[in-house]
Design goal:
The protein is of the alpha+beta class and about 130 residues long. The protein has three helices and seven strands; from the N terminus they run H-E-E-E-H-E-E-E-E-H.
Length: about 130
């Protein structure tokens, strides 16, 4: 006699893993537009996603360096695919204005880190060492 619970347990676990990947896993998107040096709008499979880059703070509109930081981020992200990675893998979090909080990776480079290295961010606390 087979026991149905191992199969049911497997299906439940697989469903949870799938849901975590789809709802909270890394995304691959395309750049739609740069709002400023630390905020972008991406085109993802489910539509537009406003993303705030984690752990950086670049000049805001009407501050010195705003346009240059925005252009630097746009050049860094380019027009290829952008991978959205979360601070806690698989756990999507949102911040102010319902923006997704994330690291953006292009060609193996973390844009958040590169913006700090280039001097566009006034802080870079606890950035990943990639």
């Amino acid at each position: 006699m087979t026991r149905p619970w191992p199969t049911a347990l497997f299906v439940a676990a697989a469903s949870l893993l799938f849901a975590a990947r789809v709802l909270g896993g890394d995304l691959t998107c395309d750049l739609d537009r740069v709002i400023d040096g630390d905020t972008v709008v991406l085109r993802c499979g489910h539509g537009e996603e406003h993303v705030r880059l984690l752990r950086i703070d670049t000049p805001e509109r009407r501050q010195p360096g705003f346009e240059a930081a925005s252009e630097a981020l746009e050049e860094l992200l380019g027009d290829g695919p952008v991978t959205v990675e979360y601070e806690i893998p698989g756990v999507a979090k949102r911040g102010t204005y319902d923006r997704l909080l994330a690291y953006l990776v292009v060609d193996g480079r973390v844009a958040n880190v590169e913006m700090v290295r280039a001097g566009w961010s006034r802080r870079g606390g606890c950035l990943p060492l990639t």
